[in-house]
Amino acid sequence: MKRIVLIRHGESIWNKKNIFTGWTDVKLSKKGIKEAKNAGKLLKKNNFTFNYAYTSFLKRAIHTLWEILYKLDLVWIKTKKTWKLNERHYGNLQGLNKEKTSKKYGKEKVLQWRRSYTIKPPQITYEDKKFPGNEIKYKKLNKEEIPLGESLLDTYNRVIPYWKNKIIPKINKNLSIIIVAHGNSLRALIKYLDKISDEKIIKLNIPTGIPLIYEFKNDLKVKNKFYLK
After folding, report:
1. What is the pLDDT of the chain when averaged over all its residues?
2. Looking at residues 124-138, what average pLDDT do you find?
3. How far apart (Å, rounded) are the C-alpha atoms in residues 34 and 56?
4. Rg for the chain (alpha carbons), in Å?
5. Of residues 130 and 79, more confidently modeled
């Protein structure tokens, strides 16, 4: 049976403070570290093992994966880090408190920026000090590849080609794979896997630190999915 495990990183310090994070590289909170360790314990209890892992360029996902692999005694397995699995870039919203932003712009507008499929948040500029191209981990990318602010559709358009071109070939080799990523990069993937409409995706929320299992038929159509609890 072909299957993958998807996990949204544990709670970050900005999740705790209710701040738009996006590509800002913040660490896990104490609760987030505990969530990551608990995810590892849960996977071990249910006899999961892996021989390949994917994660983003952001430390909250990387550190979550580390904690899980440590609990499973699998720190040695091959791990691929890619910016294609980064969180959705929240543009000029990054660093702002969500509640205060809702009071300023209205709950409906902020909900659209946060959850809708096609609407982008306010953009940053290439000259902005928050532009990711200023960070060494993105130096190999062309400037035009780096987002200034993304809709979920933009995130989908980088996650799904990576899924099809890089991850599916590994699944077809019967590798056991874990993907630790972010709320919106995983929403994009789940939208594709579950064929969720543009309208209904706004309601999808993914909890932090809980393994989500997908089981596939031989043709890689979804056979079953469930959270491990």
Report:
1. 96
2. 95
3. 20
4. 17
5. 79
User: Tokens standing for 128?
Assistant: 């902005």
State the catalytic residue, choosing from 9, 63, 89, 182: 9
Return the residue matching tokens 């056979």: 223
The sheet carrying 222-227 orders its strands as 78-81, 52-55, 177-181, 2-8, 212-216, 222-227
In angstroms, rounded to a whole number, what is the distance separating the alpha carbons of residues 197 and 20? 25
Which residues, other chains included, contact 46 with Cβ-Cβ below 8 Å and sequence gap of 6+? Answer: 228
Q: Which residue has the tokens 């499973």?
A: 72
pLDDT at residue 229, as a whole number: 86
- Concatenated DSSP letters of 137-187: GGTTS-GGGS-SS--HHHHHHHHHHHIIIIIHHHHHTT--EEEEE-HHHHH
pLDDT tens-digit map of 83-100: 999 999 999 999 999 999
The catalytic position among 11, 35, 87, 150 is 87
Residue 9 annotated in active site? yes
- Phi, psi (deg, nearest 5) at residue 20: -60, 125
